[in-house]
Specification:
Order of helices and strands: HHHHHHHHHHHHHEHEHHHHHHHHHHH
Distance between the termini: 30 Å
Number of domains: 3
Radius of gyration: 26 Å
Strand content: under 5%
Structural class: mainly alpha
Helix content: 55-70%
Length: 589
């Protein structure tokens, strides 16, 4: 899987779009012309506008760096509203389909950014009882960014008073007991602990600027600054231990920060998904029934009757010896590429095939990434000599050849590596509209298509494929239910163990990554949902005979990153309006 980015920014776009040597006109254009798909050379009239938007936004984010700052929030609101005004002055009807797609995408993003700023404001209100001193630190740093002269005596007095206030707050927190703290308060406490890190960074940046340069500043602030820094460290420890429930030396508990039904509705609109969460959960449950049937069929072929868990256990024990995983990965990558070429499924540029590389994940990284991470460099999770014996076995079992057979192509070709290769060469400005439904959905779609084409030949292979497919369905269920408040993170771990067949430590790592990391709320659900969207589009265009497999897949890769509904609009030339909203019903009855 790729590392998540809420939005990817394209900082520059080439003025011309010559095809790279590996993708000659002769190699690609005939398939597109045959299929009457979108032209590989067609460009959007809004390409430069989107690039300007993302470049200016990146500049503002470099200038306004203090997390949860009201001034930052208002500046970004003004910026996005200004761009909304710019869009209204564009003659939408005069745009080509590529231009209309960019218009809809940019308009959707502007609305989404404004919604998220409002959500951020609510999050800050919930934290303020814990951090009443935050405005002082924020103003220190923002006054410096405005080039305001500093008043050392006043700054020293503010720091001294703040240190006393923080110590008083620490005593109040320490007087609490864990039994009086409910889950909502733990959620706010975990968010506050992270915010305290940001506040300490802002305070250090402010203090570092004048220390040693302005002699009166150092004279007045050095001692109270040290006291505030120490007080913040003690206070953060108290928040983590008492409110969050994290004992010293232990991993952070899996708590998460649910966004609720309203937040999910906003995020689904942003991703152009025209369904309610309950409908998506029902879809996952329906797909689970098919998987359970296939699991029993594979188990019977392996001699385990209907006991798919016993079959899964046998597959987990097929792991390769320590030191031999890289050779397995190379073999699986070459096998997938050869299959793609033999079936003429997609163009594989020789340069893309040449440049992919491999690295090993550290034991620390494996705590939150127990499987692969991918892209141009595939990062392999497998035990090192410093890991505990039980952790070594769990890692080897979870990365056995049959599980890996379903994920190596997900990470490399035709998955994330090929995606990144093509997205940097065709419509790169659409990095502004990057979404996990396109990124992860594309890679997951190939797991389904290769299944349909009998790529997994043995029941052991099929068991590996089914394991990951059920894992991605479970992600839809637990992602949405946790954010709706219908499931706890611990229940999500149990779901992965009991229904999918995960090792418990791997399940905990997956859920931890989903809710305590940097993933957006819908990121984990996007794998299977995005894959199902592309599969529905494949049925509409390829199985109907309107496009070949190769033309269909090449056209998606040459269109740039965007929600799948806009991929469909591009491939089908669907009518778009200035105020277009998601309406595609990709779920079959």
């Amino acid at each position: 899987m790729m590392r998540p980015l809420r939005w990817a920014f394209a900082f520059a776009a080439p003025l011309t779009f010559a095809l790279p040597p590996a993708l000659t006109t002769a190699a690609i254009r005939p398939t597109l012309l045959e299929a009457q798909g979108p032209s590989v050379t067609a460009q959007s009239e809004l390409r430069d506008s989107v690039t300007l938007y993302t470049t200016d936004l990146a500049a503002l984010n470099r200038r306004w760096t203090v997390d949860f700052s009201p001034a930052r929030r208002e500046r970004l609101r003004a910026f996005h509203r200004e761009w909304q005004g710019r869009l209204t002055r564009i003659d939408f009807d005069a745009l080509s389909q590529e231009g209309r797609i960019d218009y809809v995408l940019l308009n959707t993003r502007l609305t989404t950014e404004l919604d998220r700023l409002t959500r951020e404001e609510q999050l800050l209100r919930e934290m303020m009882p814990y951090v009443p001193f935050a405005p002082i630190i924020t103003e220190f740093e923002e006054a410096r960014r405005r080039f305001n002269p500093v008043d050392p005596p006043s700054a020293g007095a503010s720091l001294a008073a703040m240190a006393k206030q923080i110590d008083s707050l620490t005593r109040v927190v320490r007087a609490r007991t864990n039994t009086t703290i409910n889950r909502p308060e733990r959620i706010v406490g975990l968010r506050t602990a992270a915010y305290l890190d940001a506040l300490q960074r802002a305070l250090r940046d402010w203090h570092r600027f004048s220390t040693g340069y302005h002699p009166l500043f150092t004279w007045w602030t050095e001692d109270p600054f040290k006291r505030v820094t120490a007080a913040l460290t003690r206070y953060q420890a108290a928040i983590r231990e008492v409110i969050v429930g994290q004992k010293p030396g232990e991993e952070e508990p899996i708590i998460g920060d649910p966004i609720g039904a309203a937040g999910l509705a906003e995020d689904l609109r942003a991703e152009m998904i025209a369904y309610e969460p309950a409908q998506l959960i029902a879809l996952a449950e329906r797909e689970f029934k098919w998987i359970e049937q296939e699991q029993r069929r594979a188990a019977r072929e392996m001699g385990f009757g209907d006991d798919w868990r016993a079959a899964l256990e046998a597959v987990k024990r097929t792991y390769v010896p320590a030191g031999e995983q890289p050779a397995l990965i190379k073999e699986l990558a070459e096998e997938a590429i050869a299959f793609l070429k033999a079936k003429d499924l997609i163009t594989v540029p020789p340069l893309a095939e040449e440049i992919w590389r491999m690295e090993m994940l550290s034991p620390r990284q494996q705590l939150v990434s127990p499987f692969f991470l991918g892209g141009e460099v595939i990062q392999v999770s497998y035990p090192t000599d410093s890991m505990a014996h039980e952790d070594k076995l769990m890692s080897m079992r979870g990365n056995n050849p049959h599980f890996s057979s379903a994920t190596v192509h997900h990470e490399l070709i035709p998955g994330h590596h090929l995606q990144g290769f093509m997205a940097s060469r065709y419509h790169p400005h659409r990095g502004a509209f990057s979404t996990p439904f396109w990124t992860e959905g594309w890679a997951l779609y190939w797991e389904m298509l290769l299944w349909d084409l009998d790529f997994p030949r043995t029941p052991e292979n099929r068991t590996g494929f089914l394991f990951w497919r059920s894992h991605r369905l479970a992600r839809i269920i637990f992602s949405l239910k946790v954010h709706l408040g219908q499931m706890t993170p611990q229940e999500a771990v149990d779901l992965l163990v009991n229904r999918v067949g995960h090792e418990r430590a791997n399940a905990e790592a997956e859920v931890r990554r989903s809710f305590n990391g940097t993933y957006s709320p819908l990121y984990q659900a996007a794998y299977m949902l995005g894959g199902l969207q592309i599969r529905a589009l494949h049925q509409e265009l390829v199985r109907s005979g309107r496009m070949t497999n190769r033309a269909f897949h090449d056209a998606i890769m040459q269109g740039g990153r965007m929600p799948i509904e806009m991929v469909r609009a591009r491939l089908t030339n669907a009518p778009l309006t200035r105020d277009y909203r998601a309406q595609w019903k990709f779920i079959t009855p």
